[in-house]
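User: Can you recover a sequence for this backbone? Please restate the input before giving your answer.

Assistant: Of course. Working from this structure:
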């Protein structure tokens, strides 16, 4: 039996030590907002925070998480959707299919915690999540809106360069 602190609540979980944290969160704790995408920590759909740092939970074994560490999932970012990123995501209609968006928001939240007024270069360096729908322009605009960047007046001025290799 292992103990994990998720969204401010301690949970006793029963899983093999090498079970990815993602599956413990979804199957043992019942929080399904964190998604499985690739299983090899590349796409970022499974991003959660551990002690405030973004982590790809699909490749992190349960044994690597200490009971004293604080895990935050998309459900714990705000109880009522009032986090500035969640509001910006809705206002700018960021998601198309929406599958990757919880991980994208979690990565963006970590970025804004470290860099409250990120530049385009900061966003490019930090947001390495993959969106198959290609909503990167809207993601950048939402991050800037959440940061209070008044220079973002419309999506057509936002540019993103992404490489899939």
């Amino acid at each position: 039996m292992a103990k994990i602190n998720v969204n401010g609540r301690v949970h006793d979980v029963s899983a093999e030590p090498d079970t990815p944290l993602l599956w413990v969160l979804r199957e043992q704790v019942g929080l399904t907002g964190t998604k499985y995408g690739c299983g090899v920590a590349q796409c970022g759909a499974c991003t959660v925070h551990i002690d405030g740092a973004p982590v790809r939970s699909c490749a992190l074994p349960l044994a690597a998480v200490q009971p004293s560490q604080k895990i935050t999932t998309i459900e714990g970012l705000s109880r009522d959707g009032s986090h500035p990123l969640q509001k910006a995501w809705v206002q700018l209609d960021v998601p198309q299919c929406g599958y990757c968006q919880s991980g994208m928001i979690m990565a963006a939240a970590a970025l804004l915690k470290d860099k409250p007024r990120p530049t385009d270069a900061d966003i490019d360096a930090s947001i390495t999540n993959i969106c198959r729908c290609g909503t990167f322009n809207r993601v950048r605009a939402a991050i800037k809106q959440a940061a209070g960047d008044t220079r973002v007046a419309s999506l057509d001025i936002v540019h993103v360069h992404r490489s899939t290799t």
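That completes the design. The helical segments are 21-28, 74-77, 84-91, 101-114, 120-126, 136-146.
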